[in-house]
Design a protein that fits this description.
Helices cover 41% and strands 15% of the residues. The chain is of the alpha/beta class.
């Protein structure tokens, strides 16, 4: 049990002991990191805890996001330890149960938002959320102890007067707006926030509802839209500096057109990264910034005659979402802030949205999870109902419950959904409303033990294919080919971890983070699971037995250590020397196994061959999200560099690498046209490979270079720490930091150390990141990627890493549009 030092925890300890638990208190002193205390306890060699109970928020009244950061750090430590424990987070006054409850505290509410994400990302680690009243009595603490001690699937619970209250979604009653008359804005409408996609729709909707003056405080509005609204008689006033907003409101008051309606808009943030891959301080900073923006807005409007105060958030705050920690925690905090406004007699409505149609480049993944991108007209109708109905908090989503519920509950039950009749029906007759908890792992072991040995692999293969179908959103496991690579099936790092967590829940086996890398097809994975569950000779008896000679080791792990980070050049120099002792090749025929290439997408257009980078992150997975923006449009192939896998040889020199790559590409594309592409170091490979293919008389039809810099670039030199941090943060299900990967990275450094851009015959597109990776004090835009030879250039959303990661589908769509314009 973690609690701030000096907190009055003895009544909590007594309640836990009364339930048969043996609590051990770990006090956290002011200024200390709770994660360090947890790590020290886990490293002490004592028995691992069955539960971890965090009272950090319950006894910490600090405003802001300090407890949120502490909680995220604690989760990282527990996840890294791999212990079979469950984490319960206890808050105080973070949610409201009844109308007379005090308004929730935004700091605690943000922890609840985080917890909804962790329930999906860390289903075996996450226990749940428990909220106490401001002054809990003995009955409240006894109820808390019962929840922690006893098995059950309720994981969002508030305790009031000794009674338990579970969180549920409820459908907003269908029908027209409650007042019976269509809402029309009165006075000036203030539209606040940066929402490039949603703002134009909302502004047109406001104009259609009769708004005559729009005060815009946020991202600039396109000139065409301003002209369109002006033609409709709408006056547009822009406030460029947030500090000038109060004065702008005063001018509206003086003109007799005070602001009566306020809308804070945000766009969907798209896919993100799991909590364990985000620095806790960065998470807290992002959530704090999003919350502060609305808090400042509310303060400016506090004493003005505002009739409607509407805040846009994400449904990640409603039900969670993998990779959506920032959106979920921010949204939950904003719901609490809005409740505070209502408690003070001021209006506030929070509207949580799923992505709108124009925000989704590739709707397939969402649709397969039962979420249909929102039609803007439907969204406008829902917004009108929410505003006119004076709702407190609503979520707007177009949901196919028959697909959403199985996907959402694949890794753990979700009592939250049982308040929606369609969801309860999709979860089966009555779901598990009786509170019983099944043990799927025991049932599976019993079934395997009773089955003939020849049938066991088939049973597990059926299980794997079923979960793969659920994660990817296919209607039937029959769509999943047993021997097809998971990357080719459509997995990326996030969905790989989602599948692993689902299989952990179903099998009870401890499965590594690199499960799909080590066992790259459903058939391979089923054999591995058989060994993990039964030790069956048809499977693998242990992780160690499945580890090829040379895998694992210390070198990759050292990369995460502060000393290696502080002396990156010394670390790289050591690895370069070690790489010289690895076997090498000069001709394709000398490879132990043929060079690989992996198809990530299929479609009728000219195929794109993506050259992988030479970094510690190297591999086909680098382009998994990029390929999602091209599925159904054109084939996308990933061309890995040899040497990064266990037992693979390194190229003796650059010519050896080019001979292998040229041979592989031409065997893959045949006689047809093709496009080469590469991101970062992969663009270097694409450039020299294009030259080799020109020499052989088979140049690519086009080359796409994504945010590339020379090895001695002063830009990259200034961002060394950010580049290394990006590699560590993106260590994922497809980048095991083993000795082969570390020395392969070093082995490629001399090959490209003197690389300079070379001219190419092919049409060339340079795609540049739109956001700098770190601070830049040079010439404006001097940090941007450049190409010295004829080319076209476009900017991609995101920084050097996120443009191909979180925003990869957008990048794929951008490249497709350019290629289509060239009839490719």
């Amino acid at each position: 049990m973690l609690a701030p030092s000096g907190a009055p925890v003895e009544p909590v300890l007594a309640a836990l002991r009364a339930e048969g638990l043996s609590p051990v208190t770990m006090p956290v002193r002011p200024g200390d990191d709770p994660a360090d205390a947890a790590r020290a306890a886990l490293d002490a060699g004592t028995d691992a805890p069955v539960r971890v109970l965090s009272l950090l928020d319950a006894f910490d009244d600090r405003p802001g996001t300090a407890v949120l950061a502490d909680t995220a750090g604690l989760v990282r430590v527990l996840a890294d330890a791999g212990t079979a424990t469950s984490l319960w987070c206890v808050t105080r006054g973070a949610v409201a149960v009844a109308a007379d409850d005090p308004a929730p505290r935004p700091a605690g509410a943000s922890v609840w938002g985080l917890g909804r994400v962790l329930a999906l990302e860390q289903p075996r680690l996450w226990g749940g959320l428990l909220d106490l009243p401001a002054a809990p009595d003995r009955a409240d603490l006894d109820a808390l102890a019962r929840v922690v001690a006893r098995a059950g699937d309720e994981d969002q619970v508030a305790v009031r007067s000794g009674a338990l209250h579970a969180r549920r979604l409820e459908r907003v009653p269908a029908g027209p707006a409650t007042t019976g008359t269509a809402w029309r804005p009165r006075g000036t409408v203030l539209v606040h926030g940066d929402a490039a996609v949603r703002a134009p729709y909302v502004l047109r909707w406001l104009a259609g509802r009769g708004a005559t003056h729009l005060l815009l405080a946020g991202a600039p509005v396109p000139a065409e839209l301003t002209a369109e609204l002006a033609a409709d008689g709408v006056e547009i006033t822009t406030v460029a500096d947030p500090a000038g907003l109060a004065a702008a409101l005063d001018r509206c008051d003086a003109a007799g057109t005070p602001v009566r309606t306020v809308l804070h808009l945000v766009d969907s943030t798209g896919p993100g990264v799991p909590v364990v891959a985000v620095e806790p301080a960065d998470l807290a900073t992002a959530v704090g910034a999003g919350t502060a923006a609305v808090a400042d807005l509310a303060a400016v409007c506090a004493d003005r005659p505002v009739d409607e105060f509407v805040v846009f958030t994400s449904t990640a705050a409603t039900w969670g979402g993998g990779g959506a920690a920032v959106a979920a925690a921010t949204g939950a905090a904003l719901e609490a802030l809005a409740a505070g406004r209502r408690a003070a007699g001021r209006p506030a409505t929070v509207v949580a949205w799923t992505p709108w149609a124009d925000e989704v480049v590739e709707p397939g993944p969402l649709r397969r999870r039962g979420i249909l991108p929102l039609d803007p007209e439907l969204a406008a109708d829902a917004l009108a109902r929410a505003v006119d109905g004076r709702d407190d908090t609503v979520a707007v989503a177009d949901v196919d419950w028959s697909m959403f519920v199985p996907a959402f509950t694949a890794v753990r039950p979700a009592p939250l959904l049982r308040g929606v009749p369609e969801a309860a029906e999709a979860d089966g007759p009555g779901g598990r409303a009786d509170g019983t908890v099944r043990d799927p792992a025991r049932a599976l072991r019993d079934r395997l033990a009773a089955a003939p040995a020849a049938d066991r692999h088939r049973i597990l293969l059926d299980l794997v294919r079923a979960h793969v179908a659920t994660v990817l959103g296919h209607a039937s496991p029959g769509a999943i080919e047993a021997d097809r690579d998971f990357l080719e099936l459509g997995f990326d790092s996030l969905t790989a971890l989602e599948l692993r967590d689902a299989l952990r829940q179903e099998t009870g086996a401890e499965l590594s983070a690199t499960l799909l890398f080590d066992h790259p097809s459903p058939a391979d994975l089923a054999r591995h699971l058989l060994g993990r569950i039964l030790g069956d000779t048809a499977g693998e008896t242990s992780d160690g037995a499945a580890t090829p000679e040379g895998a694992g080791g210390i070198l990759g792990g050292l990369f995460r250590q502060p000393k290696a980070r502080e002396d990156a050049a010394g670390y790289a120099e050591l690895l370069v020397k070690l790489a010289q002792f690895r076997p090498s090749f000069t001709e394709p025929g000398q490879l132990t196994r043929p060079a690989g290439i992996l198809r990530l997408a299929e479609g009728p257009g000219t195929p794109v061959v993506c050259c992988c980078t030479m970094s510690l992150l190297s591999g086909a997975h680098e382009y998994a999200r990029f390929a999602t923006g091209l599925r159904g449009r054109r084939d996308v192939w990933a061309l890995p560099n040899p040497g990064f896998g266990v037992g693979e040889e390194l190229p003796a020199d650059l010519d050896a690498l080019l001979r292998v790559h040229a041979d592989t590409v031409l065997r893959t594309v045949g006689d047809g046209r093709f496009v080469l592409a590469g991101h970062s170091g992969g663009a270097m490979v694409a450039n020299v490979l294009a030259g080799e293919l020109e020499r052989q008389g088979r140049p690519p039809a086009a080359v796409v270079l994504m945010d590339t810099y020379p090895a001695d670039s002063e830009v990259l030199g200034g961002w060394t720490n950010q580049l290394l941090d990006g590699m560590v943060e993106r260590d994922s299900a497809y980048t095991p930091m083993d000795d082969h990967r570390a020395t392969a990275w070093a082995g490629y450094l001399p090959l490209f150390l003197d690389w300079r851009p070379a001219p190419m015959e092919s049409a060339t597109l340079l795609v540049r990141a739109s956001e700098p990776l770190g601070e830049w004090s040079g010439e404006p835009d001097g940090w941007r990627s450049r190409w010295p030879y004829p080319h076209e250039a476009v900017d991609a959303v995101g920084d050097h890493f996120t443009m191909v990661g979180e925003r990869g589908p957008d990048l794929g769509a951008t490249v497709h549009e350019w290629l289509t314009g060239r009839d490719l």
